[in-house]
Prior knowledge:
Layout: H1 15-29, E1 37-45, E2 50-52, E3 57-65, E4 68-69, E5 73-76, E6 79-81, E7 89-90, E8 97-98, E9 101-109, H2 118-133, E10 138-143, E11 146-151, H3 158-164
Antiparallel strand pairs: 1-9, 2-6, 3-4, 3-9, 5-6, 7-8, 10-11
Helix pairs in contact: 1-2, 2-3
Amino acid sequence: MASLVSPPAASPLTSDQLAASEALIAAQLGVPTLERTQEAESGTVGSSGLIALSRPAVSVQSLTLGGAPAAGILRSPWTLDVSALVRPYGGGTWGGTVISTPYTVTYTAGWTAEDLPPGIRQAILTAAELGAAVPVGVRSESMGPVSRTYSEASTLSPDVLALLRPWLPLRF
């Protein structure tokens, strides 16, 4: 896997450190890679009219709702809004029932080195720099006479997590 980020001029960072940092960032975002791929998904849209994508999208190539071509609004990298196109409720005396509409969407996910968002680029560089100074995930605690050092595999600093906030998937 080629890294999307190159070390800055006169930086001691290696391409291996950047690749490891990139992998940690991808894992934090819940995706296998940050590199550009074409994705296709299908499912049903419920009453919210929102489609939760499994990868952060940069563009949508095609969308069908109930077998017919449709257009939606990419509200965030993870959410496609088709609420104006779906009927949330159907008949019934006691408030109706939710009508699920089948969808199929094809979209572009991930980035190239040229269009990687600056926040993600900075998160990769910051995580790599912190990892170069102290191995990422190493923690040390002391309570009285007892000291313990241990490792957490995917620990990222609060600064890195703040940079990633716009691209984190919605979890509920």
